[in-house]
Write a structure and sequence with these properties.
Blueprint (H helix, E strand, L loop, with lengths): L2 H12 L5 H14 L7 H9 L4 E5 L6 E7 L4 E5 L6 E19 L5 E12 L3 E4 L4 E17 L3 H8 L5 E4 L2 E4 L11
Antiparallel strand pairs: 1-2, 2-7, 3-7, 4-5, 4-6, 4-7, 8-9
Helix pairs in contact: 1-2
Length: 187
Amino acid sequence: MSSLNRFVERVQSIWAPLSSAVVAGCQQQLDELLKTPATEPWLAELHQQAPAQQEMHRDPDNGFVLLAHTEPEGLYRPPHDHGRSWVIYAVQQGEIEMGTYAKVQDSDGKVKLVKRGSTTVSAGQTLVFLPGDIHDTQCISGPALLFRFTERDLKKEDQEAGKLTRYVKQDGDWVPAIQCTPGWLKS
């Protein structure tokens, strides 16, 4: 049995509604998945093909999704949340810096982000984000291969429910994209 199949079976066996135990169990299984030898065929293929994104597993009964991402050094993904979903990032190769943010509201009612700090996630490490957590990512040593484990299909969540929030720079501050008019959008 491949380590990927073992990962899926073990996560299925512990799956339940969001709790500390479920998150810890899934994180432990991702930690084990990161120990997979690069010679295992599915992982060797990921390294060789280096896809920007590839779905590794979509669980038909529980809804969780495991994606693989290969990111070039310097790739930056602006602040965003994952809506109602919780997410675990697992770095297999390279390093990703992940900043965390708090959403604050000024006296005029406008929302902006304040950066709390950042964490460098290196090969063999995982990082959890719970529903509503806001973060950005930047590949600081690449190419990086990372896994993104989500409790649900985020693309569907975004398209159907519009629950994910993305942020853009406006006058030096990160603000919700919906708070801006198109002329203010900056990359």
